# Entry
Amino acid sequence: MIPSYTDHSANERTFLAWIRTGLTIMALGFVIERLDLLLASLGRTAQAEGTPTMGQAEIHGLSVGLVSLAIVLIVGAGYRFVDINRAIDDQEVRPFRGTLMPLGMALVLLAVGVLLLLYLLHLV
# Structure
């Protein structure tokens, strides 16, 4: 049996959850970019009604930002996975430093959610 097998398994499950989150964010960025034709056609209708809309540059920027965020998240997840694996195998007691990535991710996704909500309410 592998020493600390349950700890290593939990670390791997957490790593895979971060990878799934990164892939989902990347897919969201891709979908937003591909839906620009639909948004453009809806935008023409909204502009005729006098409702402000986001331009293609903003949609493209959001898509690139989400894909870039996903890449950073996946790289960070890989670093965290290796670091925690080493900490599990090391018998020395270390302080836990793993709260920055989840909290940072939550704040970024909260900001994206608020921006999308404002866009849907036609306030941006």
Summary: The mean pLDDT is 80.
